[in-house]
Design goal:
The protein has 14 helices and 14 strands. Helix 7 (about 185-195) crosses helix 8 (about 205-215) and helix 7 (about 185-195) crosses helix 13 (about 320-325). The protein folds into two domains: about 5-160, Thiamin diphosphate (ThDP)-binding fold, Pyr/PP domains (Rossmann fold, 3-Layer(aba) Sandwich); about 185-365, Thiamin diphosphate (ThDP)-binding fold, Pyr/PP domains (Rossmann fold, 3-Layer(aba) Sandwich), CATH 3.40.50.970. The termini are far apart. The chain is of the alpha/beta class. It is elongated and about 60 Å long.
């Protein structure tokens, strides 16, 4: 890779290509481009990459071409609508996708290693056109995308890490008030309250915070696989119902696979506690807003069949609501509205242990027979 493409120049090139709208799931390496589309008022955050691709297909069918912004960790979510919608119906959607774990998997987080080494191979196998961007080939890459569009074929612009420039992030003014909830305050209180419970924490800053506050064998730090922490928790709860399982989730992750909530509600698992930290944004990728500002998670939880539902947004209510969640009849949904605190970031769990080591340690704890009081 040589040089860097300024986010503003890339945005202009996309607009010249005919792009009028943007959607996707945030990646920190696309933050500058994301903010430019957001500032222009033409960006619609999607719950998942597959949904973004389908939305962009709708725009294309209506004569309003769009672009999908995402990272290659979400390529799996894209493959179904790519192969069963865009390709057979010949809908030429453009995708800008960052290459996490490429070209050197060791230079990125371990959850990106597999997809990093096979992204281009998967696209080749699917016969989908793509160009790998660098600081010198934007014009040529856009020309390739234009030729693919003429053939009514989707096209991927693959962006290695840091090849697209950033754009300063304006402060959202969300300094923590004395009684406001924040990620550090909530996770510290939750971890202090745990005893023999199993914990599954979602990807991003929540897993980092949980590891920082209290690393323990009963913690499963789910880096990657966004949106699936609740399903892992449900699997644990159904396999070991005598052990209480706590899922520490985020608003964007819960929304990504909201259907899992319906499965949880239908399961009637009394030992499952689902704690959703709602900060209204994708904090670990640059605080891009999620759609949670229009969502009533408590009402959704009741409709999905969670037996006990609670919510809070003040520090003074935190001890009571955590105790009630851990003792309530499940499945429990506890929604805690917090202010973003992007300046408090801790090392990921896999900086001190490999994913395989975390899995082995957790499995040993999950299968341990609890001693009777």
């Amino acid at each position: 890779m040589t040089g860097q493409i300024a986010a503003a120049d890339f945005c202009l090139a996309l607009r010249a290509h005919g792009v009028r709208r943007a959607t996707g799931v945030p990646c920190g390496h696309l933050a500058g481009l994301w903010r430019l589309f957001e500032a222009a008022g033409i960006l619609v955050p999607a719950a998942s990459e597959g949904a973004a691709l389908a939305m962009a297909a709708g725009w294309e069918l209506a004569g309003e071409p769009g672009v999908v912004l995402c990272q290659n960790s979400g390529l799996g979510n894209l493959i179904n609508p790519l192969t069963s919608l865009l390709m057979p119906y010949r809908i030429p959607v453009l995708v800008v996708m960052t290459l996490r774990g490429w070209p050197d998997p060791a230079a990125d987080e371990p959850q990106h290693a597999v997809m990093g080494t096979c992204t281009t191979k998967l696209l080749d196998a699917l016969n989908v056109g793509y160009a790998v961007l660098d600081g010198e080939n934007l014009a040529q890459s856009m020309a390739s995308a234009a030729r693919s569009r003429q053939r009514r074929r989707p096209f991927f612009l693959l962006a290695p890490m840091r090849v697209i420039g950033s754009r300063p992030h304006k402060d959202d003014g969300s300094a923590a008030a004395a009684d406001a909830l924040t990620r550090p305050r909530v996770v510290a209180a939750l971890m202090a309250a745990l005893t023999d419970e199993l914990l599954v924490s979602t990807t991003g800053f929540l897993s980092r915070q949980a590891h920082h506050e209290c690393d323990r064998p009963g913690n499963f730090y789910m880096q990657g696989s966004m949106g699936h922490a609740a399903a892992i928790g449900l699997g644990l709860a159904t396999a070991a119902p005598s052990r209480r399982t706590v899922v520490l989730d985020g608003d964007g992750a819960f929304l990504m696979h909201l259907g899992t909530g319906a499965t949880i509600g239908a399961s009637s698992m009394e030992s499952l506690v689902h704690v959703v930290i709602d900060n209204g944004c994708y904090e670990s990728t640059g605080c891009q807003p999620s759609t949670s500002r229009t969502v009533d998670f408590a009402a959704i939880g009741r409709a999905l069949g969670y037996r006990t539902v609670s919510r809070a947004d003040t520090r003074s209510a935190l001890p009571t609501i955590i105790t009630a969640a851990l003792q309530g009849s499940g499945p429990v949904l506890c929604v805690l509205r917090v202010l973003p605190t992007p300046d408090e970031v801790h090392p990921r769990a896999t900086a001190s242990a490999s994913p395989a080591d975390i899995s082995r340690r957790f499995s040993a704890e999950a299968t341990r027979k609890l001693s009777l009081p």
